[in-house]
Amino acid sequence: METAKTLELDSKVIGALPIVNHFIERLQLGHMLSKHVPSRANLKLSHRDTLLIMIRNILLEREPLYEIAEWIAKHDRELAGLGDLVPSILNDDRIGRSLDALFLADRATLMTELVVLAVKEFHIALDQFHNDSTSVSVSGQYHKVPTTYRGKQSLKLKHGFSKDHRPDLKQLLYCLTVSRDGAVPVHYKTYDGNVTDDTTHIQTWEAIRRLAGRSDFTYVADCKLCTREQMGYIAKEGGKFVTVMPQTRSEDTWFRHWMKSNQVQWQELLRKPKSEAPDCEEDIYWGFEPPNLSEEGYRIIWILSSQKQQLDAQVRQQKIAKTIEELDQLKQQVGSGRLKTKEQINAAVLKVFQENKSAQWFDWKLVYVENDKFVQKGKGRPGKDTQYEKTVTQCWSFEVLTNPSHIQEDAADDGVFPLMTNHCLKSVFMKQVLQEYKYQPYIEKRHEQFKTVFAAAPVYLKLPHRIEALMFLYFVVLLLNALIEREVRNEMAKQEMPRLPLYPEARNCRFPATERILSIFSDHRRHTLSQRGNVLKEFVDPLNQLQQMVLGLLQVSTTCYRPP
Predict the structure, then answer these.
(1) In the beta sheet, which residues pair with residue 133?
(2) Can you tell me the mean pLDDT for 241-256?
């Protein structure tokens, strides 16, 4: 009994650290950080090791920076990159100084070297790229914060158009470019919070050209690319682009007006099943290319999507229903408060239409109405002989009706959107242009992972230059995340493995994401049984069949998952 009391069991998490370390080694990330972010010789923990620990933490568990010491104390220190040092060494000051050093480093060259090695090591195709940007909110006012650190200019945190729907917070703009091959991030850049997307594409395209070593790749972006200067620059330099033409263009107005009085000869381009269920409905895409080109001489391809068609109809119906509901509530308030005069009522009705963007579907007018009111004659409680006096009051109100013809006219172009490209008409057909554009949601998925899975926003750092350095670490995390995901999917395809049972209850997953892949290792631990300081036994949780299968797909050795 006394012997049992002296036994101690120490358990440390191994988790998915061996997988992450495997990809860090393949990218030679440690060597590159040592080269570009050097440390003083007397540092107990180098900047390289500190930054690698932060990368592992963000990729695996996303703990706040001030809790990294607690996170690493629960994990195998050797695998986490701490070695024999105590976890408390990872305090706020050390992490902050490492971010300072990373900010001062030549991060552009470091990123280029890292991506070039990734392209070579993982054989990533560089024939098509997708670009998009997102805003990253930051917590704090940032008044009188220096915008330079040791003479180097940092980004400026500003109020701007918030894609997070947080106009109360300052922000920065995070611009990301991924390859079509696996949606692997190949370039990023941060901009001041009030910079607009339509000023960033030329700089990004030039960076991608230097990376690819050629200019004839296809560059896909949203409607902010559709400016004369940006499209003209890419075309002049021998590049190809695909973008969405915004509705503000005169070509858009002309075609939508023309199609309402002419029969469009739509050509079916693509069919995609909505689910894996047998006999399920399909999303269908049609295309039409009019003979006239854009003002700049580029092709305009009009796409009709059955999925977007249904969505547009639902959105319109929701707006109409919400407008009617709000107008009914408004009408009940007419004659009281600040809804008595003609001007007040007119302004209130227009505000409802403006907020719901629904004025085009309604006809309405102000009307002068009479309200009857009966008042008891004399005093006392009313009875069967009580007499009442009728009074008539006059006031302004309004009447609203939906306009069926306007609704039908608007529904005529549901599901229609235009793509603009400088692809040659003879060599690239409408279907190929559509397929190139259809990959654009994958970069939006990377942004979703960036801001939700990896919890990049809002940022809680006091100094802008440290925030800028932290954004580089998030790019590295997104790169590792994409490579792990791509390796698993590619190996599944090679081995003709259509699914992996990654979901709870061993449900199958056709397209495994890194978050799901790594989560199956989250509880894997190494245990040490000791007595009075003497190690009696070391053992590791056994790998199950699914874990072994995933490690095989990733070509990761199981050595770290075995007892010493």
Answers:
(1) 175
(2) 94
Residue scoring higher pLDDT (245 or 157): 245
CA dist 367 and 401 (Å) reads 13
Reported as a single tens digit per residue, the pLDDT across 367-383 is: 887 666 677 777 777 77
Residue the block writes with tokens 């409607």: 223
DSSP state of 459: B
User: Which of 210, 384, 226, 397 has its CA nearest to residue 295?
Assistant: 226
Residue bearing tokens 């070297």: 113
Pairing of strands 148-149, 282-288: unpaired
Determine the Cα–Cα distance for residues 462 and 338; give it in Å rounded to an integer: 45
Residues 276-311 have pLDDT tens digits of 666 678 899 999 999 899 999 999 999 999 999 999
Confidence (pLDDT) at 553: 96
Domains delineated in the chain = 109-303+418-460 (3.90.350.10)
Q: Residue 531 has what pLDDT? A: 85
Statement: residue 491 has pLDDT above 80:
yes
- Separation CA 128–CA 205 (nearest Å): 12
Nearest to 307 by CA among 270, 266, 261, 358: 270
**Tokens at residue 314, please?**
């639902």
| Per-residue confidence (pLDDT) for residue 339, from 0 to 100 | 85
Plot region of 361 (φ>0 → left; ψ -120 to 50 → alpha; else → beta): alpha
Is residue 474 pLDDT above 80, yes or no? Answer: yes
C-alpha 322/C-alpha 501 separation (Å) is 43
DSSP 453: I
The residues, any chain, with a CB within 8 Å of residue 34's CB and separated by 6 or more, are: 46, 48
Cβ density class 171-192: b for 16+ within 10 Å, e for less: bbbbbbbbbbbbbbbbbbbbbb
User: What would the two tokens of residue 151 be?
Assistant: 């003479």
Q: How far apart are CA 400 and CA 393, in angstroms?
A: 22
Question: In 10 A of CB 381, how many CB atoms?
Answer: 6
DSSP string, 208-232: HHHHHT-S-SEEEE-GGG-SHHHHH
